[in-house]
Every structure is written in structure tokens, then in C-alpha cells.
Amino acid sequence: MSTSFLDEFKKLYKEYTRFNNIKIPLCAAETYVSDFVKQGLRSEFEGKYIQGYKKRIIDKDNIGSDYIYRLMELVSGICKEIYNVKYTDCRTLSGMNCFSILAMSLLKNVKKVLITTKDMGGHPSLTKILENYGINYKPIPYDYVNYDIDYTLLNQILRDEDIEFIIICQSDLIKSPDIKKIKLTSNQGIIYDASQTLGLIGAGLLENPLNLVDNLLLIGGTHKTLPGPTCGIIMTNNNDYIEKIDFSISPTYLRNIQPNNIASLFLALIELKEIGIAYQNKIIETSNLLGKLLEEKGLTVRKINRNIYSETHQIFIETSEKTADILYINATKFNITLNKRKSRLLTGIRLGTQEIARYNFNTRDLNKVAELIYLISREFPNENKIRSLCYEISSKKQASYIINDLFME
Question: Which UniProt keywords apply (predicted)?
């Protein structure tokens, strides 16, 4: 055994565990995953194969693949109840892997698409993927004052230009797009990456786009407001899209689909169905209360309107570039996970509340979080006060909204 490497790994894991225990979790892209959900990650499904899904060729498939098929059917069944969808595919490995495979499956011969760009909070990988596949794109018109798509201009483009797909993939959003305002023709479709908001949609706090448009794929990574493992999910009610993607995902573009992650995702969906409404409501409540408290500390917090800071798990703090740098440097020093942003949409800091909501932080706890963010925005911060607050806040990290049913050894 390579003892030195193993010892180094043990040291690394011990250090990371300590960091994870003491950190103040305000990153919008990461979340708490419960022991109930983690069971799937260590399941015996690990490493098993299946060739295809709905159109699998059974007599050529791996012996034992029926169990993986049944697992995927369980995911499909619970998604039908939660999202009102007839086809769910969870074979892709992450949100961007999910989009990449859809681009190969659906967009190969497409002339032009409209996309959310980095300037409007769009995922920065989107343009790189499309360019790599030789797909022409242009930005979706965006209203930066109201943090929303400019639907009038968008519908004019859809009417006048040869657009085949709209691709909505926003990493930064305090307001969810209103899909019913988009006027598609019969040969136009939407790929809606809802990685950030899948939990909120599933709990009914944001409108479910699958109920609004038939020519739509709802996709995403499953580890933000939906507190599951790293996995990709594709949902649609459109028969033509199902036909095109079902066999192309695997075995064409993927071989091993990591079914242990799918098992873990299924358990996360059970959580969402059983306790999701209470938890997701707590996320929205936390976003708006923390936004208010941050503003009371003198920070500039973006608002959707006079009374609402956010319809999602995200909070936007507007700062100068210098202050954003100070905030980020101090956050790194004191183990406070947050995200620095510099775009037309936001120069400043993006916070996420999905994890502290899971810890059921109350007003007093959130006031300490707001005070902490204010203190680390100072060029010469009070380090003793910051360390004291960090200790007090991290000690309150006790998970709520959980299912105590540990049955997988």
C-alpha cells in the first residue's frame, strides 16, 4: 500500500471535514445533502450498466440491468407526481453535461438559437458549448432594470427570425422567467435549465414551465434548491424530444450512467415530495428576511420591487469592484462561502440561502449573518468580532426538514 499517499488523503479529508463543519454556507451553488439522501451514493448500484432506457435492447443488455431500469422508472414515477411530467431522464452526470448531451442530440442541425448570456446571469459555459458544436446563437433580450427577459422584443425576434430554440440557463437570478409570456411558433422550443430552482418549482413556489409549454425541456443539475447529489435531469412532455434523446444519451454519448447517483437523486425527490413545501418556503422566507437585515446594516441589496428582495434562494449585494474584492478576500480568510460577481447584471456578491434555510436559522441567527457580511465588507475588519460571529453561527448548523429512515448499509 502507498502509505504516504493514503496518509496524505486522510489528512486532506480531516482538514476538509473541519472546514465543512466551521464554514458559513452562503454559496448559491452548493447545498446540504442529508444522510437519508447520501445512502444512495454508497449503494450497490454503483458501477452497474444499462444500455439505453425506454428503447433499450433487452436481449443485448447487461445481465442485471433490469434493476437499473426499475430504479430509473422509480425516478420517473415520482417526477410525474411532483412535476406533472411523463418523461424523466436522469442518466446525465451534471447540469452542464446534461445540456451538452442535449446539444448533441437536438441542436446538431439547428440554424440559430437564443440564449441567456453571462451579462444577464447566464451560465458562462453555455456559449463555449454552442461554439464548440458550431451552433449560431444570439442573446435573449433582457430588461436589466426588472431582472427579467424583455418579452416584447423576444417575441418580435421569434416572429421575425429563423430561431429554433430558446435556451434559458441562468446561474444568477432573483426572479424566475415568466415562460407563459413567450410566444412560440409550432416549430420553436425551449430548453429551460432550472438547476438553481428545481426545488422551488417542485414545491409549487415557482410556476412549473412543463404545465405551460409542450415544446419544452426542463433540465438541470440536482444539487442546489433540490438538495440532491451531483446529477443531471431532463424532463419533457414532448414526444418528438423524447424520441430524439432517449437512445442517444446512453449508450451513444454515455456508457456508465453512475446509477448510485440516480439512487441518491430518487431519495432527494422523496424528500422534496414529503417535506419540500415547508423547506422551500423557508428558503424564500430566509432570502427576503436576510435581504432586509443586510439592507438595515447599510449594504445595497437588489430588490424585485419595494417589498421583495428575491423570489429564489439568491440575494444580490451591489458593491464597487474594490469592495467586492475585499468581501471575497475576507470571506475566504474566515471560511464564509459566497460568490463574487462582475457582470452587467451584478457587480458585487451573490449569496445563497438554501443551506442556512435547511438549518432553520431564525431572525436572531440571520441578524448575525447580516452583521458578519457587513463586517467582512470593511477594508480593516474587526477580526475578533468576525471569529466570534463565525463560531456562533456555525454552531447553529443543525439540519431540519429531514427524513430519519436510514436503511441502506
Answer: Methyltransferase, Pyridoxal phosphate, Transferase
